[in-house]
UniProtKB/TrEMBL annotation:
One of its GO terms (molecular function) is ligase activity. It comes from the Bacteria. This is Phenylacetate--CoA ligase family protein. Signal peptide: none annotated. The keyword Nucleotide-binding does not apply. The lineage of its organism: Bacteria, Pseudomonadati, Pseudomonadota, Gammaproteobacteria, Lysobacterales. It holds the Pfam family AMP-binding. Residues 119-330 form the AMP-dependent synthetase/ligase domain. PANTHER family: CAPSULAR POLYSACCHARIDE BIOSYNTHESIS PROTEIN. Coiled coil: none annotated. It comes from Luteimonas granuli.
Amino acid sequence: MALLSPAGPLARIYGMAPAGVRNAFASAYGLKNDRLRYGGSFQRQLAGYRERDGWSRDRLAAWQEARLLALLRHAVANVPYYRRLHRQGDYPVEEVRTVEDLPKLPLLDKDAIRRNPEDFLATDPRSLHVLHTSGTTGTPLRLYRSTETIRGWYACFERRAREWEGVSRKDPYVLLGGQLVVPVETDRPPFWTWNAASRQLYMSVYHLAPQFMDACLDEIRRRKVVHMYGYASAMDALAAYALRTGRMDVRLRLATSNAEPLYDHQRERIAAAFSCTVRDTYGNSELSIGAFECGARRMHLSMEVAAVEVVDRVGRPRPAGEVGEFACTGLLNFDQVFIRYRMGDRGALRADESPCSCGRHSPSLAAIEGRQDDVLVTPDGRQVGRLDPVFKGGMHLVEAQIAQVAPDEIHVRVVPAAGWSPADAEAIAARLRDRVGPMAVKVIEVDGIPRTANGKFRAVVSEIDRRAAAGASP
């Protein structure tokens, strides 16, 4: 979704250009992206998503199964990595008849893709679009996809993230993301770019400082934005500022969280500040999973995007409702094929199979606990994921990060808000101990919490060797 500022030889010119020229750059880039994403087969693929939203679970499962079997046949015939394993007798795709049979195939680790991404290609890379991504770990991946794959993903997003909530790509929206669209040293507005072609106002998270927020809110209002999209932490920062200063003049229809966990206290603050619906989404750059929240607060998996398993560390299925590692088989991208891909995130499938009140029949996630490195490991080997309940109940803080700094020690870094007191620190420490047991907990006041290289906020981080934290547990 991001509007990238120009790279290479244009970057210096762009950085020195006046706002009008930067907006022209942004609009030209946006026009190019819109043609790529929304041209050709986009409308046909969008119609398919609309139709499948009304299908029964059995019909969706049959569609997904047919797509999966076609992908497996394609992989062993045309993709070097899988063809090689199949010829060695190590990839028994003939034994796979349903999604439930996928554990008969080996898991795919990210390191294998990182070492040789072209080994997973079925298509000449010169005909594909390439994406270089570092993710939250800072370790790069080189990803490929065709124009048809790109249009398929954007059709899915249009349907499930926008149309479900009564907005469309033609509505003006603001994107709060990690691209630097104005020089970082800029201290006077504009701190944004306006992409007229896409009706997109792009605001970098690097300029969402309190002294700039009035100007940002003014521009959102001036552009008549109806949809806010981006990092939950960035939307929450704007919302907190608006509530704190009484800036209640920005009204939205929808705020959509992407690429970071959305916590309940953030959801409530964003909804209160902007009088809007707040929805969560979940996906990755590899296009190996896609989930979208409905009005009943269920996170529905898009079965067209991937077949999703939840497994233990050796690839055995975990029962629905139990947390494990996601192993995802991407069904959108037949050009760079990822089967049973260990994407590094943990979560659980919903055990309750009762129909969703929203009327859709796709399966849903019961929990998303984030990256493996966003999980605390207690001295007895338990893995503890989402910890946002620790901060519920009117805590006087701007933001906080929980960091495991030793196998038996946790630091909570807190940016205090007005009214912060030792009682808040004591409450946080007590709630955390309730969840992790006899570990040392230290609450530390800080001025700010650094973002990752791409501007994301990590609420829970592990800063120790995983094997040391887990001790001798299997």
